[in-house]
Design goal:
Trna Endonuclease, Chain: A, domain 1, 29% strand, MutS, DNA mismatch repair protein, domain I, 176 residues, 5-stranded mixed β-sheet, 32% helix, alpha+beta
């Protein structure tokens, strides 16, 4: 079955789809974006992922087509750590997980176990994407773990190497 291509427009820091059944299907079937009025609002990462998959055609506010390269340049300027975050998002989505933003939890993403959709159950992990060459202090590490523990989620660090491959480290509290 050929999946329809959804048209959307890029305005400053958000991507808004057309009002169509195909756009709503992106949300209903795969939980991309959030429903806003009769359209689906996508994050920049979701939009770029769908463009790469051939599922999204993007235009600017002047209704001029926007290709992946032009969109990526804008996204890299708009969002800190966009590429590292995108690599982790793409890897998780390609593995069959639903990935949503986790700003209210102080993390980059919340990830639902395979087959679970938001609203049906809680996310299993809070995910922090990092470059292999980056570092953080024990205080920052402890804070991330504390947030995950207090929200009853597991902490997952997605480490992106120079080849854009992702390795995951799951961290949990343990009582001896």
């Amino acid at each position: 079955m050929v999946k329809p291509i959804v048209t959307a427009f890029f305005a400053k820091e958000r991507v808004l789809t057309e009002s169509s059944d195909a756009a709503k299907e992106l949300y209903n079937q795969s939980r991309f974006g959030v429903i806003v009025e009769d359209k689906v609002e996508l994050s920049l990462i979701e939009a770029y992922y769908l463009m790469q998959k051939g599922r999204l055609k993007l235009t600017n506010l002047r209704n001029q087509p926007m290709d992946e390269t032009a969109f990526l340049k804008k996204a890299l300027r708009k969002e800190h750590n966009f590429w590292t975050r995108f690599c982790v998002f793409k890897d998780l989505r390609n593995r069959g997980y639903i990935v949503k933003t986790a700003l209210k939890f102080g993390a980059d993403f919340r990830v639902y176990d395979r087959g679970v959709k938001p609203g049906e159950d809680h996310a299993k992990w809070l995910v922090y994407p990092v470059k292999e060459s980056s570092s953080f202090s024990w205080y920052e590490f402890s804070a991330k773990n504390r947030v995950a523990n207090s929200t009853k989620k597991r902490l997952l660090i997605g480490v992106v190497d120079e080849e854009n491959d992702v390795t995951y480290w799951e961290i949990r509290w343990m009582r001896p």
